[in-house]
Fold each of these.
Amino acid sequence: MAAGSTLWTGRLRYTPLLNILIFIFAVAVFGPAASYANAAIKTPMDEQALIYMRPRPTNGKIIAYTLFMPFFTILQSLVDLALHFYLSLHPIYALVISAIYFIGWLSQWSIWMNCEVTSIGFDNGGKGETCFQINLKHAENSTVPSKSSEGVVNARVGLGFVVIALYVAYGVMAALAVARKRRGGKGR
């Protein structure tokens, strides 16, 4: 048995369930994100409404914009599950990972919200510096590229928010395990 195995007892034994939920929701975000990336790649530039004379983003940039956090979250949650079941998931590692992924998801979610969900300032200079979608053809009164749907965007953003909440819970569980370790490693 690993030295840290008594740290994940009591209520903390449910930590793998959080990892499983993170995995499930990351996969659930990956689907709409892949659909959005595919639509953004296929959507032509809007030559009449070019606000910023910038070249079309590469397919790699579009894929990174939409799939980076879901893809790496899937990998990270599988690694954490394996570490937990092999009794070598250290609470400090879990706390650091949860903080990094919380910040990453919050940043990604904020960009998605700014570029795709809210239309405040979409036609002024505010978003063109960060959002490639501003020069793509859009449906009437929409911030979504014409080859995508608002449902895909809303699903990705909503599920992304759930992942953020799960990382908060994962961070709390890891912090409790760190506190338990500092008290001597015995759980209730």
Amino acid sequence: MAFNLERQLLFYGQYHHDPVNVGIHITCVPPILLTGLMLATNAPDINVPSLISIPNLPVNLGTIGALGYSVGFILLEPVAGALISPVIMGSTIYGSYLTSTYGMTANWWLIGTQVICWVAQFIGHGAFEGRAPALLDNLVQALFLAPLFVWLEILFFFGYRPELKARLDKSVEQELTKLKQSERQRKVNGSANGSAK
């Protein structure tokens, strides 16, 4: 995955242009990311020398994942990434506390949140977008981009980088037009092939 913000957002935006589906994603993607990282804190802690350890910040799969998301987001979009990184890291640290203190009770709540949010997103794609989710074309790219895309949608709403938003909207519209033309052509070719028999 190349670190080109517009190309990455264009890929994701092609699958998320319906306002209702975007709203569902704005509501569901953050809990999916954060509960996923919280669940990953169940992994055993990695022992690090006390000289480089940070109190109340265990090194485990969840905190490593949170650091990966944070660094990746900062590389793609420094300002937006820097704004969301404390939320990602703080939620994961809190999740580590929850899973270590409340065990399976916390895990069941986290898993329930995951299930509800994933179901809502698939309904959003089926009922409103009329297109399969991006994760069916590129799982890793979709899972990494979804939280950043949602965060940028929120920032765009408040006027952040209007020139990027305008370029992205125009590019997404062009790609969707190409997709619709391709689908129409496929149907025409399929009809022609079917009637030739």
Amino acid sequence: MVKFYESSFNYDYPLSAVSLAYFLRYPNPYATHVLSTDVIDRHFDSARQRLSTTRLHLKKSKLPPAVLKLLPKGILGGGGDAGESYVLEKSVVDIKEGWMKTESRNLEWTGILSVVEKQAYRRPAETVAQADQAGIDLVETTKNEGTSVTTTVTLLSRFGQAKALKRKEGISVTDSEQSTGSEVEIPAKKGFFSSWSTGSLQRSIELIGLRRTREAMSKSKEGMNVVLERLRNGGLVRVLEGMQQDRRRAFGQNGPWKQVWRQEHELEDKD
């Protein structure tokens, strides 16, 4: 039982500007829930002219209330309302060939709902041959140049799947196995939940996730457009100023980004 979401969109900006905006998109007025972003790996392949990056985003996030209502009490041990979650993002940019591919996936509550988002950004075929021309401004657009993006999101719930499989195979599950398992398992259902099959719960969770994905995609496009507009009007300086303003509006003067910076410098002073 898997749900898919797919959408296509065109930006009126060249790929060079769109790829830069992608890496500078947090925070923005439509993504004030992003607490921090860390680059954990970056590599440039000079032979193929490709930049590969792996980043880790920390976001203010929790399971949707509609999903929590479907889960038996105590199944998360309070983790579903923790308020923060990590998202792993991988990207590859090839300006020479005119494309960028990204993949993002949640690292929290994957047993309940795994969400994998893949995006493919492409320069129009007729402008790929001009990629090596010198003197083209980063955000200068031409009449026929833009960037198309196709987004595919895969939502998969494995809620209760591990225990159901063990029951099917006739394997007993001990308390210790349940507590150390990597997947979330459904305890014995009572009352209302006794009428729900594992498949029904999984489908319901995936549908709720699908609705939330549609809303998130709309905000994501708006956020990218804000960053691109800042690039057009004031270049990189305007983007950085906008990021600072968004950070202050979202978190105040002593937000999480500034706290991390202070902690790093305190450690340096101690050394």
Amino acid sequence: MAKPIQKQQSSAEILKMPHHSNGRRLERSRFEFEHPWFDDEQRPTWEKHAGPLQGEKLNILEVGCFEGCATTWILDNLMNHPESRLTVIDTFEGGMEHQEGSMYDMPSIERRFLSNTSKCDHANKLRIIKSKSDDALLDLRRERTCFDLVYIDASHVAMDVLHDAVVCWRLLSVHGLMVFDDVSWKGYLEDCYNPRVAIESFVACVKQEIQVVENGMQLWLRKTENCIPATANPDSGLVYPEMGVRNLE
């Protein structure tokens, strides 16, 4: 499924694209979204980077699906091949920010997800795993499942994001795409809870096998062959000059 990387647009250029054109809205008017973040903010990026995959045999994983805004776009646009499949994982209970006192009615969000996805032409290609991602992803590993595109948009807590990223990377085929949502989301004053610290830590650990496709409101990575071979340290001491772990303050 590997595709040549197209010339990248800056985040500023992407934001100038007509996200709210009447054509876009009419095309998806059969769906009901109370929180259309995907259509409002991310859809042009998906059309740019995932749109060219139309017609290919694809196995796609979406971790966190909410009302199905991204799910319905994937079903309508990337499931054209008769053997393509989409797997989504969600508890439909919400994350830490969706609990008591929040503005979200999670039972109604699950109902909208099921209603929205049922209206897609390729709804029969959708597999729904109603579970926490830390359980479901390990089950997929045991099934030896491989994916061509993984979209991570579940829990916004850093430790959960890091877990999802590491396990999903093992499930992603070489030349496949991994997409992180909410790179700049700052729902908590303490950085240790926000997604960015997890995403940056993960990227540092897989630097040897990534190609950055898009770095803006979302982060798009292509998994490559290892391009930085490990080099044995000639220093017999085998330790860093400074002792301990850095940046603990």
